Automatic annotation (TrEMBL):
Record-annotated membrane-spanning stretches: 27-50, 56-74, 135-156, 168-187, 207-231, 252-271, 291-313, 339-360, 366-386, 407-428, 434-452
Name of the featured protein: Amino acid permease
GO biological process: amino acid transport; transmembrane transport
Domain Amino acid permease/ SLC12A: from-to ranges: 27-456
Classification via PROSITE patterns: AMINO_ACID_PERMEASE_1
Topology term for the membrane: Multi-pass membrane protein
Lineage: Bacteria, Pseudomonadati, Pseudomonadota, Betaproteobacteria, Burkholderiales
Compartments, as annotated in UniProt: Membrane
C-alpha cells in the first residue's frame, strides 16, 4: 500500500506521461543489467591491481554499502514510486536545492558512465579487430542502443531482459567451469586457493590498497539504484519493487564475490590485475578452444546491457528535472510511445566525450571517464542515506508497508562510509579527479540554483512545508 503524502502528490502528478510497461522481472533485470557490466568484467582488473586477493574484502564492503542503500531506497520507493525517485525524495524531504543537486549530480554521473561503458566496448572489440580504431565501434553500437531507447519502454525492457539473462547464464556457466578447474587442478599447476597468499600474501598492497579498491567496488555496484527510477514505469510498482530489490542484491553480491574468488584462484592476482579483462585471462588459462572469445563476447554484451540501462536512466532523470522546472521544457516532453526523446538525445553527450577521448587519449580514456563519473554516483548514494533519515522523521514507521531494518544506525553507517570513500579518492592518484572535478561541480550547480531557480524552488517548497514535512 502506498503511503504517498499530500505534499508529494504534486511531484507524482507533474511526472505523469511515461507508460507503465515494465514487469517485476524486467525491473530486476534493469538493475542487474546496469550493475553487471564494465565494473565487474573490466573494472575488477583495476581493483585487483590495487588490493590483490584482499579485493574480496573490498567487494564485500562495497556490497554491504550497496545492501544498506537498497534497503533505504526500497522503503522510500514503495512509498513513492515515481521516475524522479531519489531526486524527488531529496526535493520533498530535504529541500529543493537538494533535489536539484542530486538529480544533476546523478544525471552527469550516468552520462559519463555511459561513456565509460562505450569506451570499454572499444577495448573488447580489439580482441577480434585490433587494427580497427575504437571510435568506429563506439559510434556503431551507440546508434543501435539509442534507437532501442527511443522506441518504447516495452522494447527497452524486452531487450534489457534478454541482455541480462544472457549475462546471468554466462556467469553461472563461468562459476561452474571455474569451480571445476580449481578443485580438479593438479597440485603443481599453479591453480588453487594457494594463489590467495602465494604472491605477497592476502594483503600484498596492505590495508590501504584493500580500502582503495572499495572505490572501484562501488563503481561496480553503481546502477543498482536504477531500479528505483524504473519503478515509475512499473506495472505494479509496490509489489514489483519489493521483489526486485531482494532478488537484485542477492544476485549481485553472489555473482561478484564468487566470480572474483574463482578468478584469483585460477589466475594469480599480479597477472589478473594487468590491462584487460581478468575473465578473458581465466578462459585463456583453461586452454579450451574458443573459450576466451566466447567470454569476450559475453563481456561485450554486458557492456552493451549496462549502457542500454544507463541511457534509459539518464533520460528519465533529465525528464524529471525538466518537469520540476530545472531544465528546458522540451526535455520533459514525451513521444507518442511515452519516451522523452529530447532528454534521450541530450543524455548521449557522454558518448560524444568518449569518442573524443578515445581519439585523443585512447590509453587513459577508460580510467579518466571512470574517475570523473564516480563523483556524481557517490554523491547520490550519500544523499540517498541522508534523505532516508529525513524521510523516516516525516513518517510513522508503522504506516510504511516496507521498512528498512536498523534505522537510524544503518542509514548513518551508510552515509559515513560514503563520506570516507569520497575523501579517500583525493589521496589516490588514479581517482584524484573524482573530487577535483566533483567539488567545483557541486559549487557551480549551487550557484546556478541560487541565480536562476531559488525563487521557483522556494515557492514550490511552501506547500510541502505546510504539510509538516
Amino acid at each position: 500500500m502506498s503511503t504517498t503524502q499530500p505534499g508529494f502528490d504534486s511531484i507524482v502528478e507533474r511526472e505523469k506521461g511515461l507508460h507503465r510497461g515494465l514487469t517485476s522481472g524486467q525491473l530486476s533485470m534493469i538493475a542487474i543489467g546496469g550493475a553487471i557490466g564494465t565494473g565487474l568484467f573490466l573494472g575488477s582488473a583495476f581493483a585487483i591491481g590495487f588490493a590483490g586477493p584482499s579485493v574480496l574484502l573490498s567487494y564485500a564492503i562495497g556490497g554491504a554499502i550497496a545492501l544498506l542503500l537498497m534497503g533505504c531506497l526500497a522503503e522510500m520507493t514503495v512509498a513513492h514510486p515515481t521516475s524522479g525517485s531519489f531526486g524527488a525524495y531529496a526535493e520533498h524531504y530535504i529541500g529543493p536545492l537538494a533535489g536539484f543537486l542530486v538529480r544533476y549530480g546523478y544525471w552527469s554521473s550516468i552520462v559519463f558512465a555511459v561513456g565509460t561503458e562505450v569506451t570499454a566496448i572499444a577495448v573488447y572489440m580489439k580482441y577480434w579487430f585490433p587494427a580497427v580504431p575504437g571510435w568506429y565501434w563506439i559510434v556503431g553500437f551507440s546508434v543501435g542502443l539509442i534507437a532501442i531507447n527511443a522506441a518504447s519502454v516495452k522494447v527497452f525492457g524486452a531487450v534489457e531482459y534478454a541482455f541480462s539473462m544472457l549475462k546471468i547464464v554466462a556467469i553461472v556457466a563461468f562459476l561452474m567451469l571455474g569451480a571445476y578447474i580449481v578443485f580438479r587442478a593438479p597440485a603443481q599447476s599453479g591453480i588453487g586457493l594457494a594463489n590467495y597468499t602465494s604472491h605477497g600474501g592476502f594483503f600484498p598492497k596492505g590495508a590501504w590498497g584493500m580500502w582503495v579498491a572499495v572505490i572501484v567496488s562501488i563503481f561496480s555496484y553503481l546502477s543498482i539504484e536504477m531500479i528505483a527510477v524504473a519503478a515509475g514505469e512499473a506495472q505494479d510498482p509496490q509489489r514489483a519493487i519489493t521483489r526486485a530489490f531482494r532478488a537484485t542484491m542477492f544476485r549481485l553480491v553472489f555473482f561478484y564475490l564468487l566470480t572474483l574468488a574463482l578468478t584469483l584462484a585460477i589466475v594469480p592476482w599480479n597477472a589478473a590485475g594487468e590491462d584487460g579483462s581478468p575473465f578473458v585471462k581465466v578462459m585463456a588459462a583453461t586452454h579450451i578452444p574458443g573459450a576466451a572469445g566466447v567470454i569476450n563476447l559475453v563481456i561485450l554484451v554486458a557492456a552493451l546491457s549496462a549502457m542500454n540501462s544507463q541511457l534509459y536512466i539518464t533520460t528519465r532523470m533529465m525528464f524529471s528535472l525538466s518537469r520540476a522546472g530545472y531544465a528546458p521544457r522540451r526535455f520533459g516532453e514525451v513521444s507518442r510511445n511515452g519516451v522523452p526523446v529530447a532528454a534521450l538525445m541530450l543524455s548521449t553527450i557522454g558518448i560524444a566525450l568518449a569518442v573524443a577521448l578515445n581519439v585523443l587519449a585512447p590509453q587513459a580514456s577508460f580510467t579518466l571517464m571512470m574517475s570523473v563519473s564516480m563523483f556524481g554516483a557517490m554523491f547520490t548514494w550519500l544523499m540517498i542515506f541522508v534523505t532516508h533519515l529525513f524521510f523516516r522523521r516525516a513518517h510513522d514507521a508503522k504506516s510504511l508497508s516496507f521498512r528498512m531494518w536498523g534505522y537510524p544506525y544503518a542509514s548513518l553507517a551508510g552515509a559515513l562510509l560514503m563520506v570516507a570513500t569520497l575523501v579517500t579518492t583525493y589521496f589516490t592518484d588514479a581517482f584524484r579527479m573524482t573530487l577535483v572535478y566533483g567539488v567545483p561541480f557541486v559549487i557551480a550547480l549551487s550557484v546556478v540554483y541560487a541565480l536562476w531557480y531559488r525563487q521557483r524552488g522556494d515557492a514550490a517548497a511552501v506547500p510541502a512545508q505546510g504539510q509538516g514535512n
